[in-house]
Hints:
By secondary structure, this protein is an alpha/beta fold.
Amino acid sequence: MLHVLDHPLIKHKLTQMRQKDTGTKDFRQNLDEIAGLMAYEITRDVPTQKVSIVTPVAPCETEELAKEIVLVPILRAGLGMVNGIRNLVPTAKVGHVGLYRDEETLEPHEYYAKFPSNLPEAVVFVLDPMLATGGSASAAITIVKQRGAKMVKLICLVGAPEGVQRIVEDHPDVDIYLAALDEKLNEHGYIVPGLGDAGDRIFGTK
């Protein structure tokens, strides 16, 4: 259920993103490119169906995707992964989930959710660059399931063991795809070594 994508280009681009001196433009571009590279692996088991077409030369029995793909970024950092995947799957529809953390309980709560109508039939990719405690990702997966999603994958850039364990416990039917599995969380809940606050680095807000 956990897939850590071991690819030289992903490792190289992630190294650029981790560096503290990498600016917003390069950070965002590398995120786009990594998300595109990850798209090959996360779509590997998407069902296909046989179709009959006519090429310029002859009739042909071939295959096409049997299910639509829906991307659901967790606001706001998850937005940074949408374009890279959509470049390879331009027919993918996009929903959105917004969550805020209760200051007392630290539990995530939904403040925004908007989805296409085909969630029950689609393959749904929940997107968030960082899988830290796993609280937000778990809540987002619960939300799309409540809206009818049956085939769900969690796509993250960097994860911590604590976050992976949370998803395994809460959603054992959901595959997790990471570009890297890091060491741990620190006392502030940041992934170590990580790459800092992905949202701030994507949008230049810090």
